[in-house]
Amino acid sequence: MLNPHLWPDTARLEAGQLWVGGVALPALAEAYATPLYIIDEVTLRGAMRAYRHALARHYPAPSRVHYASKALLNIAVAQVAQQEGLGLDLVSAAELLVARRAGVDMTSIHLHGNAKSDAELHRALDWGVGAVVVDNLDELERLIALSAGHPQPQPVLLRVAPDIAAHTHAHIATGAADAKFGFPLAALPVAIERILAAPGLHLRGLHAHIGSQIFELGQLAATVQVLVAALAQIRAQYGVTLEELSPGGGLGVPYTDAMPATDIDGYAQALAAATQQACAAHNFPLPLLTVEPGRSIIARAGVALYRVVARKFAADGRLLYLHVDGGMADNIRPALYAARYTALLANRADAPPTAPVSVAGRYCESGDILLRDAPLPAAQLGDVLAVAGAGAYTLSMASTYNMSPRPALLLLNAGQVQVIQRRETEEDLLARDLPLAATETPQSR
Ligand SMILES: Cc1ncc(COP(=O)(O)O)c(C=O)c1O
């Protein structure tokens, strides 16, 4: 009854209750309050291992997996990634700080971003990150200046816009030549010449990321072909053989029964084959192949729990909406790009679905609808709604809209519950507010 492509590996139903990681989720909702997010450690570690093993199996040269932590980052998740032998793809100074507090090896980090600040570049240089992925010429000029006095040359990758239009939602397609990210192919020579002349930088390779939620492996293979052709061109033009090829992340995950399953092995096989073919065609040595999956590592490990707090009925008595105690502040995806999800009642999972019902979030936006026309049983007040596939791009994009404290995050494994991010408090929310200076107001005069 539970689709294994949508729910965590350890998810099961027992006496109508949803269990994950050896824990009954309705009891967790009671004990930790809602909205509440959980991560199944077995599923998380399993996906990380699946990537590493699949690449090792299909690619005969060295490969690395960097977890794209924009999907979900906190100290514990960074530690799990490090324990599983993954590097991290990070995009801000504070994400670097999380990695440092987690004890992550800085040389396993790629720093991304199209608008990195000087402070972020400074931190990357001072802490010795594995590579800065340079996005544009302005950033490159600043990095050249900042790295000039550094004892060790800073490795860099160049982000290329490979001009491949990924078949995904426009908001998460990033590979077109006019997308905001990366150097158009024609602009690469200027950047390469600047780096080769900069004593503080070491050009290590090329990177591209064409978007997220990609199921057509041919588009990723085409990205590899473009990058290898560019590597061969750089060798021909400048006599340097770059050692790293990073075709980004982006493998799709299903959120509903109708969507295809995540195929990590097929993905690794397609990338490895494309890299080997392209390298053979250009007589280029096999580079270090680095991939950066985010969503396909953490989405299915996560489940969001909400409490049904009210309902709306039509004049004819039909149930139209379940109102729950979370929504777009903890999961913006349905409002942002009409993302769909699958849900069940965690405390009455064996009740048969009745007429489709929509699940409305609690925030003051009519677009705050978490699920549209979901096949759910007629819910009662107090029921616990569990949303599958909630690990990626939910909490990492969460806001405090309507002054809502962000949910707690629990890591579950073999009946053990670990709070890895506590719920935000009202005091946290108010901590940055300062009252008006004590001046006379016009009325008080
Ligand atoms: C540069 C880069 N790498 C990797 C990823 C991860 O993508 P996904 O979570 O779809 O695997 C992203 C996400 O947009 C990204 O921008």
UniProtKB/TrEMBL annotation:
Pfam families: Orn_Arg_deC_N. InterPro entries: Ala_racemase/Decarboxylase_C, DAP_deCOOHase_LysA, De-COase2_N, De-COase2_pyr-phos_BS, Orn/DAP/Arg_de-COase, PLP-binding_barrel. It comes from the Bacteria. It catalyses: meso-2,6-diaminopimelate + H(+) = L-lysine + CO2. Its EC number is 4.1.1.20. The modification N6-(pyridoxal phosphate)lysine is found at K70. The keyword Nucleotide-binding does not apply. Pyridoxal 5'-phosphate binds at G250, E292, P293, G294, R295, Y393. GO terms for biological process: lysine biosynthetic process via diaminopimelate. Residues 49-299 form the Orn/DAP/Arg decarboxylase 2 N-terminal domain. The active site is at C364 (proton donor). Signal peptide: none annotated. Its cofactor is pyridoxal 5'-phosphate. The keyword Amino-acid biosynthesis applies. Pathway: Amino-acid biosynthesis; L-lysine biosynthesis via DAP pathway; L-lysine from DL-2,6-diaminopimelate: step 1/1. Substrate binds at R295, R333, Y337, E365, Y393. GO terms for molecular function: diaminopimelate decarboxylase activity; pyridoxal phosphate binding. Belongs to the Orn/Lys/Arg decarboxylase class-II family. LysA subfamily. Homodimer. Specifically catalyzes the decarboxylation of meso-diaminopimelate (meso-DAP) to L-lysine. This is Diaminopimelate decarboxylase. It comes from Oscillochloris trichoides DG-6. The gene is lysA.
